[in-house]
Amino acid sequence: MNLIASDRSPPSALTEAGHALRRNELWKAETLIRAHLALAPDDFEAARLLAGVVATMGSFAEAEALLRRVIERAPAFVLAYADLASLLCRLNRAEEGIALLDNAIEDPDRHLWALSLKANILTTERRVEEALHVHEQLVVRASEAAVPWINYAHALKTVGRLEDAVAAYRRSLAIDRSNGFAWWGLANLRTVRLGSHDVILLEQALKEASDDLQRVHLHFALGKALGDLSQFELSFHHYQKANDIRGRLVPYKAIDGFVRDAEAIFTAELFAKSDNVGMDGSEAIFIVGMPRSGSTLVEQILASHPMVEGLGELFELQNIVTQISHADPRTTWPKIVARFSAHELRALGQSYLSSTRRYRRTDRPFFTDKMPSNWQYIGLLRMILPNAKIIDVRRDPVACCFSNFTTYFNLQTSVPNSLAALARHYRSYVRLVSYFDAIQPGRNHLVQLERLIENTEVEVSQMLAYLELPFETNCLHFHENPRIIDTPSSEQVRTPINRDGISRWRNYEPWIAPLQDDLGSIGEPNLRFASLSRSGNPDERSS
Description:
Number of helices: 27
Strand order of the largest sheet: 2-3-1-4-5
Number of strands: 5
CATH class of the largest domain: Alpha Beta
Helix content: 55-70%
Number of domains: 3
CATH topology of the largest domain: Rossmann fold
CATH architecture of the largest domain: 3-Layer(aba) Sandwich
Largest sheet: 5 strands, parallel
Shape: globular
CATH superfamily of the largest domain: P-loop containing nucleotide triphosphate hydrolases
Distance between the termini: 56 Å
Structural class: mainly alpha
Strand content: under 5%
C-alpha cells in the first residue's frame, strides 16, 4: 500500500486550478495558475487561462496584456485570438477586435480560422448581416467542411431566410450525415417538420455518434422528428435520453437555497432605505420568466413599437453578478449588494447601461433585455436601476416545463435535466417573483401567454400602458417586423399570433403525469393572478 501510494504523482497546479474553477473559486484558481506560470512562463494555454480568470474578476487591463503577449509569442494560437477579440468587444472596442482578426486573415495560413472567428465576433456584436457576408466567404472557401455550413445555416435562420437555412443544414448533413449539431439545428427550426427518412438517418447517426455531446443533439432531434410523426412514446424516450446525458455533462444545482437567501436579504426595509439611490435611467425593459414561456413573442411585439429597440438576450446583468460574487467569495452576492453604498449602486447601474450601448443600432429611447433568467436578479435591479420596467412572462406551467424538457440548451447554461427538477425550478421562479410582487406591488407587469394569444389587443394595450408608451398598431403586426431574432422561437414569431404548439404537451400526457402532479396546484392561481393583479393599475414565452 505504501509503495502504491508513493508512486502516485500529486495533482498539478493546473489540474487543481481546473477543479477550483469548476467550484467557482476564482481566487484560488488565480493563485495556482500564477504559481504554475512562475515555473513555466512559456505555457501559453496557462497564460490564456489566467487571462480569463482575471477578466472575470474585473482586471481587464491585465487580461488584455496577457493575451497580447501570448499572441505575440504564439501567432498561430487560435484561442488566444478568440479570447482577445471577445475581451475587446466587452470593453466596447469591437473595431479593434475585428481589426486584429482582419490582420490575421491576410495570412494564408491563418485565413480560415480568422474568418470564422470574425463571423463569430460579428454575430456576438449583433452585426448579423455583416457576419452573414463572412459566412458566405467561408462556405465558398471551405465548401466540403460541415461546420461552416452549420454556422451559415444558423445565421440565415437568424435573419429570417428559412428555406436557405434548411438548405444549408442539409448541405452540412450531406458532408457529415452524423453531425448532431446540424441535425439539432434543423430540428430546432420549429416550423419545419422532419419526416420518416430523417428518422432513419438520425437512428443511423446515433449508432455512429462519437461522443456524448453528439448523442445529446441527436436524441433531441429524434425526439422532435418522432413527435412530428405522432410517435409520441418513442419521441418522449429520446427526449428523456437527451436530458439524462446532458445532465451528466452539466449537472444542475437546485436554486431553492438562493431563493430563500434572496428573500431574507432583499426586504421591504432594505428597498425603503435604498429607494432611488441607483441610476435614474429607465430606458431598460427587462423581459423575464422561464425559457419557452413566451418572452420572444413579447419582445417581438415591443420591438415593433417605434420607441423600443429589441436587443435580445443580454448577458450584461449576469456579468455584473459574477464580478460582485468575486468581491468576497466567502459570502453570497445578495449579501454583498445589501452592503453597497449609494455610490456603488449607482456605479453598477451605470455599468449596466454603458455595457449595453455596444448593441444599440437605433436612437429609440427604450430597449429590451430578454434574458429569461434575469428574474433571479430582480432584487439587484431594484437597487441599481430602480426605475427599470420588468415584464414577467408566464405560460401554463406544465406546457412551459415540458417545452424546456424538449429543448437543447448549450453546455454553458445550467438547466434542470428532469421533469422533477423542472417543476422544482419553476416553483422557485414563481416563489421569488411573487415575493417581490408582494413587497413592491405594481412594480412588475405580468403577461400570461394564453391570455395574450386569446385577447392580443387588450393584453398589448395593458403592457404598453405599464411601460407608459402610446398604443401602436404596429405591435399587433409584429410578424411583419424584419428584425434579427436569435432564439428557437424566431420562426414562430414571424407568423401571425396563433395557438399552434400551445397544447403540444398533451400528446405526451401518459409520460408526464408526475410533472402535472407537481405543477397542477399552481396552474389556476397563475391564471387568476394574470387577470386580477393589474386590472386597475397600468402599473413567457422565452426563446
